[in-house]
Amino acid sequence: MLYNEPINRRKDVCYSMKKLAVIILAVALSLNFSTLAFGQGVLKVATEAGFMPFEYVGAETGELLGFDMDLIRAVGEVLGLEVKIDNISWDGLIPALLNNNYDAVIAGVTITPERQENVAFSKPYFESVLTIVTRQGASEAASLDDLAGKVVAVQISTTGDFTASDLYDEGKLKSVSRFDTVADAMQAVIIGVADAVVVDLPVAQAYLEANPLAPLAAAGPVSADEHYGIAVNKNNVELLEKINAALDELEQNGTYAEIYAKWFGANTPAAN
User: Fold this and answer.
1) I need a surface site. Which of 70, 75, 105, 237 has the fewest CB within 10 A?
2) What is the pLDDT of residues 245-257, one digit of tens each?
3) Contact, 200 vs 108, CB < 8 A?
4) What's the rounded mean pLDDT across residues 164-190?
5) 104-114 burial, b for 16+ CB within 10 Å, e for fewer?
């Protein structure tokens, strides 16, 4: 027995060390990786660059451009963080955030009660409304009621999609066609497989300006105001507070107004 005791002790020590290693690994895996990136001076951001003028890929440089891109980079500058932005699919944004692959999402994401069940939002940074885009020469659609009996195209999981889906559930639409991007939804109207697109008004205006030959026309505002927010993981309270403080500072020092004027042609305060 005396000779076995050191061996047993070694086994006990090895077992304890292995057990400790497993615990450390489990703790590491349970940590919010976005917090780790944020803590290391990097703000990892996801967007979907098909929502001009808020986020899009520059034709010449391939750089991510737009109002949201300028804003989040300004937020990072205030916070002293390096901002790294990835362009991913729209329907993958929230899942990627929930999986802690990113610290934040900025992509013209409207703050809704349903989304707030899963993620936390910054203070609103932009106020928008929905509009209807139809083919030129088609019957006028100046209100949502004018879409009765029509096929409506939308970008999937957007407020345009939610609005059209509600109309369909009420029996007012013929059908709803969902697409990965706004451009695909617009194309559906151009080629005649859909009658209209329900989309954010600034996005419709930017699309028509970038595609002047497209046989499309946009109505005015057709919905109540909606507000965009920067989404973060609910357990990342520290980052949310810092982003809100940065947005306040950008408003106060005039940077927000400068960015707004760059993309929309006029100075205006951030949405309240």
Assistant:
1) 237
2) 999 999 999 999 9
3) yes
4) 97
5) bbbbbbbbeee
